[in-house]
Amino acid sequence: MLLDRCSSPLFLLQIWIEAMLDRPSAAIAHKPWLEADAPQDFISLADVVSFARQYLLSILAFVVAGIVCATFYFATSDPIYSARTQILIEPKIPRNLQQQPAEVNLSLDTAQVESQLAVLRSQKIAMMVIDDLGLMDNPTFRGLGGPTIGERFRRAWMSIVDAGGLTDFFHRVLPWPDRMEANSPQLESERRRLAVEIFSDGLDVQRVGVSYAMDITFQSQDPALAARIANATAEAFVREQVQTTTATASEGIAWLERRMREVGDQMNRATRVAQEFRAKHDYSIGQDETPVAGQDPALSEAQPTHQITLEQLEVTADTYRKMYESLLAAYTNSVDQQPYLIADARVITSATSPKKASRPRKTLILAFGALAGMVAGIGFAVARRGLDRNVRTPRQIRRELGLACIGELPTVSFRRGGFGRFDEVLRNPDSSFSGSLRSVKAIMGLAGATPSRRRIGITSVSPGDGKSTIVSNLAALCGATGTATLVINADDKSALANERLFSADFNAIDRDSASPKDIGKQIRFIEKTSFYYLKNDVSNSANLLVPDNMEKLLGEVGSYSIVIVELPPFSSGAEGLALCPLLDGVIVVAQWGETSLDQLEDLTQTLKNTNSSVLGVLMTRVRTVSAHRYRKRAGQAPR
After folding, report:
1. Which of 89-98, 281-290, 467-476, 559-568 has the lowest mean pLDDT?
2. If we measure between CA atoms, which residue out of 431, 391, 389, 384 comes closest to residue 410?
3. At residue 321, does pLDDT exceed 80?
4. Does residue 139 carry a pLDDT above 80?
5. CA 352 to chain centroid
6. Cα separation, 627 vs 637, whole angstroms
7. Is the pLDDT of residue 373 over 90?
8. Which helix (H) or strand (E) holds 525?
9. Confidence band, pLDDT 50/70/90 cuts, at residue 554
10. Mean pLDDT (the chain, rounded)
11. In which domain of life is the source organism classified (predicted)?
């Protein structure tokens, strides 16, 4: 059953999330909450809200840092302007493919368009634009690479100086070193190569959907230059189309001229041979006769010369004449069409100088910076929560220690001129602190004063955890209901022992005359808090930390309904916990976010080893309450 449950993906996911939010993964393996009978609680919405409230400031700090970095980025970046022009290409489909299915035509069109895109991105077009506009000597024709980190800080510093009107002063007193420019002359080929790279980086050519239109976009720091280069690129492409077509036509005409001369010469020779043969009235040609023009010599040797007749010579001459006439017609047609050669592309939209920079996009960068900061903040919070071994949630106490968290008390502010935080439940009975403490009183069953809960000890891990505040307010809460409550102070270094109000009535007692026999006379009633109080330093002869003396004292104060003993903290030594077995129960006080879980585990384990009854852990100075059940119980608790 346990193996099936542990192999469930949902169960493993729950373990991982709880490990990230509550404790390190190393502390999970040896805890008893993996037993089959232990209840498994999923992370509730209240836990998520508590986590968010706890690390809200850290997450917001990361978000603000991300926004500041984003602002610094686009404030120190050069504005980039984009100019766009559009051309339309007229595809040429061969006549033999025009009647083919649409799939063939589509594939052919795609190949033609992609070829035109390659021509637009070619180095030939780049060099034509660079030479036409003289970009190699234009100082505004620069790369799109952003400034370096040092240059960005320099710009930010100069912006601050300019805003304060201290430009001249800082240039004289603390000049910023200018960026060194390369003075070494560059080769012409290197300059051209660099210009082509800058042109290629700024040029973007895209096909518009599945149409024959193409968008030519150029990005530059100068808006006017961007428009000029975009238009020049389109014009260079059209001009290159015309030049290529003209060069092809010129090459064809030149070839036709050479071929016409060759065929003409062959035609003339064949005609002359036929005429000479007819003049001799001889139907054969001797071996010493001149071979027919254009005839293969090997064929002439293979065939006997007496087989050549006048009809054959006339057919040969007529064939060469027809070839010549065909070439002449093609030549005439080519010469007539050459002045009317046009490009297969035309400009349909000219680029204009942009008014607004296309980069950097401030809104998008700010949103990205805020999102990145939030993700980094959440990651930092999760990592910090996973590495944090201090007490923060009741779930940690329940699963790490196997104890119940009986209350979460918020921070109590100190007030001048009054009893301070020690009478908070009387001064502010409707506060969240008072309501939570009444819930603790109801949970413990102190209102009924049952015999099993008459003697209560309160201790903590270290001084300053709020132990004295809990003792005083809990006793005041019990005394306000008419229950006879006695507070025994067994910690002479506690804040309660040094309170002036509690020490005023003990100044007149002679310490030398104090003895265990008359220790009952040392108890004083505190009117402002409605409980009885026994101070430790008055009864040093009895030494309340000795178990025999404490047992005797508890027997003498049996008339009190509730006895609350303030025990020394665990950090002062374990000998103070020797009194715990004499009590009906012990409450451990832990400070939220400060008390270590390891030290708290040592304290509770020591109490269990002494056979002490641990009622639970009470968290003090809680900044974020993990659940609302304590507040609900506080509202339902009797007053």
Report:
1. 281-290
2. 431
3. yes
4. yes
5. 38
6. 17
7. yes
8. strand 524-526
9. confident
10. 75
11. Bacteria
Which whole number is the average pLDDT over 218-238? 91
Is the Cα dihedral 605, 551, 531, 576 positive or negative?
negative
Question: Is the separation of the CB atoms in 472 and 529 below 8 Å?
Answer: yes
Q: How many CB atoms lie within 10 A of CB 234?
A: 25
Which residues make Cβ contacts (< 8 Å) with residue 413, sequence separation at least 6? 421
Give the Cα separation of 283 and 301 in Å (integer). 19
Q: Is the dihedral of CA 371, 373, 377, 383 positive or negative?
A: positive
Q: What b/e sequence results for 151-170 when a residue is b if at least 16 CB atoms lie within 10 Å of its CB, and e otherwise?
A: ebebbeeeeebeeeeeeeeb
CA distances from 614 to 401, 437, 542, 611 (A): 11, 18, 26, 9
Task: Print burial letters for 99-129: b (CB count within 10 Å at least 16), e (below 16).
Answer: eeeeeeeeebbeebbeebeebbeeeebbebb
Residue 332 makes CB contacts below 8 A (sequence gap 6+) with none
Give the phi and the psi of residue 303 in degrees, each rounded to 5.
-95, 145
CB contact set of 568 (below 8 Å; sequence gap of 6+): 459, 490, 491, 493, 494, 545, 576
CB atoms within 10 A of CB 610: 13
> pLDDT: is 47 or 102 the higher one?
47
Checking if the pLDDT of 67 tops 90, the result is: yes
- 3-class secondary structure, 498: coil
Question: DSSP per residue over 419-465, as a string?
Answer: -GGGGHHHH-TTSHHHHHHHHHHHHHTGGGT-GGGSEEEEEESSTTS
* φ, ψ of residue 178 in degrees (nearest 5): -75, 155
- The larger pLDDT score, comparing residue 638 to residue 432, is at 432
Q: What angle do CA 323, 324, 329 make, to 5 degrees?
A: 100
Residues in a beta bridge with 281: none
Count the Cβ atoms, other than its own, within 10 Å of residue 235. Answer: 17
CA atoms of 103 and 100, how far apart (whole Å): 8
pLDDT at 241: 82
CA distance 170 to 86: 49
* CB within 8 Å of 102: residues ≥ 6 apart: none
Please tell me the predicted confidence (pLDDT) of residue 255: 86
Contact call for residues 446 and 561 (beta carbons, < 8 A): no
Q: Taking the C-alpha atoms of 237, 241, 246 and 251 in order, what is their torsion angle to the nearest 10 degrees?
A: 110
Q: Please give the Cα distance from 295 to 291 (Å, whole number).
A: 7
Domains of the chain: 48-75+363-387 (no CATH), 394-505+519-635 (3.40.50.300)
Cα–Cα distance for residue pair 587/456, rounded to 1 Å: 7
What does the radius of gyration of the chain's CA atoms come to, in whole angstroms? 51
Taken as a whole, the chain contains a residue count of: 639
Task: List, in sequence order, the alpha helices (H) in 37-122.
Answer: 45-54, 56-75, 95-98, 102-120
Over residues 176-203, the pLDDT tens digits come to: 544 444 444 567 888 888 889 999 998 9
Half-sphere exposure of 124 (CA within 13 A, CB side): 13
Whether omega for the bond prior to residue 360 falls within 30 degrees of 0, making it cis, is yes
Query: Closest by alpha carbon to 526, among 556, 496, 568?
Result: 496
Residue 508: pLDDT above 50? no
pLDDT-derived band of residue 164, with 50, 70 and 90 as boundaries? low
Average pLDDT over residues 419-433: 78
**pTM for the structure as a whole:** 0.57
At 230 the pLDDT is 92
User: Which tokens in the block code for residue 258?
Assistant: 């050479």
What's the token pair of residue 270? 């064949």
